[in-house]
Known about the structure:
It comes from Xylocopilactobacillus apis. It is a multi-pass membrane protein. Its main location: membrane. Keywords: ATP-binding, Membrane, Nucleotide-binding, Transmembrane, Transmembrane helix. The protein has helices at residues 2-6, 10-43, 50-94, 98-101, 106-118, 121-147, 154-171, 174-191, 196-204, 208-260, 266-295, 297-309, 313-317, 367-374, 393-403, 418-422, 432-438, 443-447, 465-477, 495-509, 521-524, 543-549, 551-566; strands spanning 328-335, 344-351, 356-361, 382-386, 404-407, 483-487, 513-517, 529-534, 537-541. The longest helix has 53 residues, at 208-260. The strands form two sheets. It has a six-stranded mixed β-sheet with strand order 5-6-7-3-8-9, with helices on both faces. Strands 2-1-4 form a three-stranded antiparallel β-sheet. The chain is of the alpha/beta class. It folds into two domains: 2-309, ABC transporter type 1, transmembrane domain (ABC transporter transmembrane region fold), CATH 1.20.1560.10; 317-566, P-loop containing nucleotide triphosphate hydrolases (Rossmann fold, 3-Layer(aba) Sandwich), CATH 3.40.50.300. It binds adenosine-5'-triphosphate (ATP). Adenosine-5'-triphosphate (ATP) is lined by residues 99, 102, 337, 340, 343, 361, 363-369.
Amino acid sequence: MIKRLFSYGKAGRMGALQQIVNEWLIMVLPVLTAxxxxxxxxxxxxxxxxxxxxxxxxxxxxxxxxxPRARSRIExxxxxxxxxxxxxxxxxxxxxxxxxxxxxxxxxxxxxxxQGIDRLNVFYNSVFPSFCAEFLSYILLLILAIAWHxxxxxxxxxxxxxxxxxxxxxxxxxxxxxxxxxNGWLSMGHRFIDDLHGINTLMVYKADTxxxxxxxxxxxxxxxxxxxxxxxxxxxxxxxxxLIFGTLAVGSAMLWFNLKNQNMSLAQSLVLWxxxxxxxxxxxxxxxFVHIIMSTKPAMTHIFHIIDHAKTPTEFKKDSTVESINxxxxxxxxxxxxxxxLLWENANFDLKPGKLYGLxxxxxxxxxxxxxVLRGQLKISSGIVSCLSADNQNESTxxxxxxxxxxxxQPYLFSGxxxxxxxxxxxxxxxxxxxxxxxxxxxxxxxxxxxxxTQVGEGGKLLSPGQRQQIAFARLILMNKDVYIFDExxxxxxxxxxxxxxKAIKKLAAQKIVLLITHEWTIIDQLDFIYFLTDRxxxxxxxxxxxxxxxxxxxxxxxxxxxxxxx
Length: 567
Ligand SMILES: Nc1ncnc2c1ncn2[C@@H]1O[C@H](COP(=O)(O)OP(=O)(O)OP(=O)(O)O)[C@@H](O)[C@H]1O
């Protein structure tokens, strides 16, 4: 993980290193200068010529004036590295395989992972600089101690080894404690209601007391896990401090004997002691920082997993120059979710522009799953899905991911104006208002006092569900895709908006491949061809053919007709 973290923000790394060396020099220079003066005072052998004093002043001045400029470099490196990780992670989240994406939720992404990335400041700003300073100080101590025939150079090594052994012993419990703490935090977050709407619902159903008890239970669990974590951190800090101060005591005793036996001068002993103390204090800080890094390990493991397992945008872009989709063929395809039985099999489809295709079937039969396959989001278990003349599955999948537009019953509108929402995508027609007019879309917008500049509110809540759906529909159409899949887009809106959208879909189907997933009889009746998903198989036919030849279809439609007549 450390190696991986270090690989980010490459451009700022050299600047950061320069700052670290500068700061280290500033730290040791006074010690060394004092030592030199002390030597001179004791022995009178060093001849301070005017030139050497001037050179020393020059070096110090350069470092001193370079320091403020360099000071921000670690900060820049930290910001760049964190930005890169955050960007790759968010791209990964958006490109995650939909099966795995089911496990992603706002708490995990925002409260754990993104906050985990923020806490990486400690790695870039503190752990790495401390580690470098530690290394440089140790090299200096090693050279001086060997030159002055002292064995103190061995002490920091022994101390580090002992700390390593202690940490390894604690490692057995450390990760579990960290994971338990994180899971406690997330599970409490899941229970947290952050809007009035949620609280109102609880009151209406008189479920607030039950909910409060469950929330207290989760908070208590989190409290216990936090205490476990603090206990673990305190125990390890105790071990760390004992080792550090123990080593310092042994080192001081060694130097005292060196001095007493006149193996070393006072100046030499003092220099070695200051360097050793500096080393051990930095080791102590490092030990503390390692704890913070360890607490971000669950988040970082997940973050790198998402980054490594998501489709990268370059994969999608690879085929952006390939021709558009004129036909989609599905041959003998079957699909099963991991560890689940086959959802459907022997699927054979041939979709072309000019006809309005429908996909009809019982709830949970696998219609939306097929839509995900046709969007290149899910891979079939066997068979072929192709949209190119060559049957290259990977290229077809990438092209489908780019050229298929999908709309569900619950689209998302962003807070902002209608215009901002409509023109969210790239590459749309410059005369987008004229294009929408031709399709009979968004006419209601012109009647609003502020027209296309009307604010839609958070999630589009200032608009009616039907208006919201019309905007989302229009936004997708403006993307000028080759294939459109509409998944129950008119299921929960009023009949007026439903008619407007259906009319536009029909016009669209004259030029594009359009597949409509629906259970509404009034819509099914207008489809050219229907793929009826029943008993894990797809049956193709017109409404009349299916109505006459397929009992399951006939039964389903009769129930649906009765239901719609009642409404
Ligand atoms: N990521 C997933 N992992 C495992 N099973 C899943 C996953 N997504 C959906 N399923 C299951 O697959 C089955 C088919 O789901 P799908 O949403 O494709 O059906 P559908 O025909 O579109 O249903 P509906 O008409 O209710 O929208 C369901 O039983 C569903 O629980």
